[in-house]
Amino acid sequence: MDLSIKKNDRPNYGILAILMTGAFIAFLNNTLLNIALPSIMVDLQVETATVQWLTTGFMLVNGIMIPTTAFLIQKYSVRRLFLTAMGLFTFGTIVAGLAHVFPLLLAGRMLQASGTAIMMPLLMNVMLVSFPVEKRGSAMGIFGLILMAAPSIGPTLSGWIVEHYDWRMLFHFVTPIAVGVLLIGFFLLKDKKEKVDIRLDLFSLLLSSVGFGGILYGFSSAGNKGWESPEVFLTIIVGCISLVSFILRQSKQTRPMLNFSIFKYPMFALSSSITMVLNMAMFSGMLLLPIYVQTVRGISPFDAGLLMLPGALTMAFMSPITGKLFDKYGGRLLAIIGLSITVVTTYLFSTISLDTSYQYLMILNTVRMFGISMVMMPVSTNGLNQLPARFYPHGTAMNNTLNQVSGAIGTALLVTVMSNRAASSSASLAAETGQVSEAIAVRAMLEGINFAFFISSFIAVAALILAFFIKRARQEEDQIETPSSDEEGVPSLVGSNS
């Protein structure tokens, strides 16, 4: 297969469709599980701190695996990586669906995570090398539509399944689809790759795993264990030391596992900063709103999923539109408008009360998701556009790794803010009334949620300020000819009909 990119080459849309379907199934499964956690706790007789490992463990495996994907993409063909990723995900889904004890369920989730960690960077890399810069916004917009559709239907579908069937049906529902995608990929993916003489530095892999894994585990555990817990601050410290050692080691290697020199490209560095900050703010809606709806207001899981549905659908359907707007106007205008909407709506969430209507919450969340949809994909694409083609695997791996880290930090920060404010408010209200009641606990929780949204609005302001420095990125190297596979190992599906 010719791995060079030419202006007249046509992307292989059939292969892209296979990759996107696999990514869609993986993303759908991730969003299905959250609403089922209470049912799993009862059925498998585990505590909240234990069942949370289904989410934390998934995030940890992603954080450990994703940095290696830059190496894997350069070393192996798209076919081999896709079949490996989809195979791991499918096997994990089957194991989780048959689990009768918690450790087996957790093992299934870990297998799913290892497949998902390979899938996302692989797909993004193929998208980048398949489309020229001037058409990349529209292409990434379609990509965003498909991936955003999964979290849009996930919570509602999950709520309906959990109310009518056993939670294992969530995995049984996904299994035949995953098997079908795996078989289609096996028979239709035919791309080949020249042998690339690069080897994985095992010590770098160890440093990366301890570094990203330690930081993710520490921040993810902070919400439950508290910042003063040695398990929290010691793992963060060890993670930071390992990560610094990993970065220093990579800077001295000819073929680094993850190339940190990509941060020398200013638009990539800026886009990474904005998406990390916005990720932290975005988690306020994803985390705090369901807590408010179900815990404070007592709304059922299915209705809670329905409340989030219009916002998620808006984000999905806006992706191709913002992609076209990005190609025409660039990322700066879209980011400023989108982040302004995000700041205002996030602040308005800090003013919700016990009497706020269901319709108001739905509309406010939908408008907020509309704002976020104008930022995430355009800003990320603008940053990747500046990178030379040989750095695409490193750019996509870095973006996905930073998303995991910022998500963990944002979750831990907002949970801590909410919990501390709720505790102090509860103590204050109890002192005023001279008694502790369920009504006081609910009011305290509401105040904690309001304050966390208030802090989140300031985080969004930081992203808005950074957005004013965005410039339309131009690729640093020639866009017509990129290094061949034996030089850099950049996979491409452009012009391939095999």
UniProtKB/TrEMBL annotation:
Cross-referenced CDD domains: MFS_LmrB_MDR_like (cd17503)
Entries under Pfam families matching the protein: MFS_1
Parts of the chain that traverse the membrane: 12-33, 53-73, 85-107, 113-133, 140-161, 167-188, 200-220, 232-248, 268-292, 304-321, 333-352, 451-470
Subcellular location: Cell membrane
UniProt xrefs under SUPFAM superfamilies: MFS general substrate transporter
Membrane topology, from the record: Multi-pass membrane protein
Full protein name: MFS transporter
Native source organism of the sequence: Halalkalibacter okhensis
